[in-house]
Amino acid sequence: MLGLATIHSVSRATPRSVLLRLAMDPALEFSAGQAVLLGRAGSGVLRPYSIAVGPQEALKSHTLELLVGLGGDGTPGPHLPSLEPGTLVDVQGPFGTFVYPRHPGTATVLFVAGGSGIAPLRAMLHEAIDTRTDATSAAGRGRTLCMLYSARAPEEFAFDDELTALASRGALVYRKTATRDASPQWQGDRGRINRAQLEALVERPEDTLCFVCGPAALVHEVPRMLEEIGVPSDRIRVEEWAVTRGRGEG
Length: 250
Fold this sequence. Notes:
Layout: E1 2-14, E2 17-23, E3 35-40, E4 47-50, H1 55-61, E5 63-69, E6 88-95, E7 108-114, H2 118-134, H3 138-141, E8 144-151, H4 160-168, E9 173-178, E10 189-190, H5 195-201, E11 208-213, H6 216-228, E12 236-239, H7 241-244
Parallel strand pairs: 7-8, 7-11, 8-9, 9-10, 11-12
Antiparallel strand pairs: 1-2, 1-6, 2-5, 3-4, 3-6
């Protein structure tokens, strides 16, 4: 489906990305984890972005949230030269099979994100919290949600305040690691995601569903480590977002 949307607001997410909110009427129906194509209205040039908000929130507010990377010129690229509120954009979609299931069927759901790969996992997390709240079964109410997030530097963790707040009230187990630049004041983990970090979050491998999204190295290495600690391969879902999309896309 191709439709028109209006840029509602723009806020800084990281030094190299913004959170773009699009007003849509009618609201777009989608599954958590899916993406849309986005570009300046009438230009015919569209690029893909994961939807970074849960379906229930998007339907209520008639808005979409997208994590949009910026190039050296401060714009996402020629497909979207202006981010001014009120700008009309074309939105096509949704599409994609990397989605959060209606009934996960496991006691633990683990999200593993690298960089801008957090975008679809944030949407999945919103959906997981919404469905857990609405769950009528004991298994649904007791499901543990975990997020392991890697970024280049402490300031590069998008949605960090939100994730930290969820963790502080017990809705999420949240761990993060800075892979490159971290000041001496940084108190989180350092380096790329490793097996020990995964093992600490996977108490029962056979009863864990995993979603992995980020750069090529992450989506190649993390599934291997998850299988090594006993997570069945059919319970590991991956999205190699950074490789299949170009500059400034998240």
